[in-house]
Amino acid sequence: MTATSTPGTTGTTEATATTAPQEQTAAAAPAVQLQFDTREIDECPPDLYRHEAIARGIDSFDNFGEEAVEFFQEYGYVVVHHAFSPGEVQQALDGLLYLIAGNRPDFRGIQFEAKARKILDTIPPEQRQDVVRKLIGYVEFDERLKAMSRHPRLIDAVSRLIGEPPALWADQALLKPPLIGREKPWHQDHAYFNLPIGTRIVGAWIALDEATPENGCMHIIPGSHRDGPVVHFKRRDWQICDEHVAVGKIAAVPLEPGGVLLFDGLLHHGTPPTQSERRRRALQFHYYPASVARITGEERLKVFGSEGKDVTC
Q1: Which of 42, 74, 89, 197 is 20 to 30 A off residue 180, Cα-Cα?
Q2: How many angstroms separate the CA atoms of 102 and 108, rounded?
Q3: Contacts of residue 190, Cβ cutoff 8 Å, sequence gap at least 6
Q4: Looking at residue 41, what is its pLDDT?
Q5: Beta bridge partners of 11
Q6: What is the mean pLDDT of each run of 10 residues along the chain (313 residues)?
Q7: What's the pLDDT score for residue 44?
Q8: 3-state SS string for the chain
């Protein structure tokens, strides 16, 4: 966990998955209104994701000890390589593709990229995932994905970071489709969640493909969680103003499949638009202390900015 260059970085440079519900055909699904992102790839300042360092990490959950907890408290993140086995990664991918294929007609949590609106009807089923931006709220629709959210070693690490048993606040799959996956501007995840300020929220970003700067891996600003809540504005998304991003302190977080980034809900982070023909698929879970009660949206917006009504992460 020793840091060089940017703190916490190097210089630039078993849960058993259960069987999915019995397959249903997409043709049997009732007609529903498809969800599309409202934004396409927009131009962003050229230096907004210029990383000065690569985030360091530990080799596996076997190495997740008190030093990792202290590192998280100081820098707002911990990278764990080889956190999940190839088999577990494949099970998660199978679960995502099962839902994207329409095998659960009651699942409504798929959002397509804006650029897919005019071409979705022409895309073969096996290519449909390459126009999906994200999936939301899927853990109750596929047992393989639920198993990942409850993975014992993940929950143990999150419990140690939070200091008590965690509850799952949000579950998403973030797909950066080849060539059309747009930017997710710099933000803090707590700005989207109706939880009291001061709550220790831990995000888990699990790579299912190799994630690189070229295909839109996570970018973070180590230690920025200690600055507290930041007002967000609706620009290219609900985001931290570009002028307030600490350019010069950015670390990229490339991951191999099965690696995970654990990060604080106040850590400044974002992902650039993809410049690659390679897929970048990831699961994201957010956990919070099970003992904490939620607050109202109005209370949250008083802290993070009034333009954030009804936004989703």
Answers
A1: 89
A2: 10
A3: 197, 199, 201, 229, 265, 266, 304
A4: 60
A5: 53
A6: 42 33 37 70 84 96 97 98 98 97 94 85 88 96 98 98 97 94 96 97 98 98 97 93 96 98 98 95 98 96 84 60
A7: 85
A8: CCCECCCCEEECCCCCCCCCCCCCCHHHCCCCCCEECCCCCCCCCCCCCCCCEEECCECCHHHCCHHHHHHHHHHCEEEECCCCCHHHHHHHHHHHHHHHCCCCCCCCCEEECHHHCCCHHHCCHHHHHHHEEEEECCCCCCHHHHHHHCCHHHHHHHHHHHCCCEEEEEEEEEEECCCCCCCEEEECHHHHCCCCCCCCCEEEEEECCCECCCCCCEEECCCHHHHCCCCCEECCCEECCHHHCCCCCCEEECECCCCEEEEECCCCEEECCCCCCCCEEEEEEEEEECCCCCCCHHHHHHHHCHHHCCCCC
Other CB atoms within 10 A of residue 106 CB: 10
Q: Could you give all domains of the chain from N- to C-terminal order, each with its CATH number?
A: 33-306 (2.60.120.620)
Model pLDDT for residues 123-171, shown as the tens digit of each residue: 888 889 999 999 999 999 999 999 999 999 999 999 999 999 999 999 9
> Which pTM value belongs to this model?
0.88
pLDDT tens profile 283-303? 999 999 999 999 999 999 999
Instruction: Determine the Cα–Cα distance for residues 67 and 65; give it in Å rounded to an integer.
Output: 5
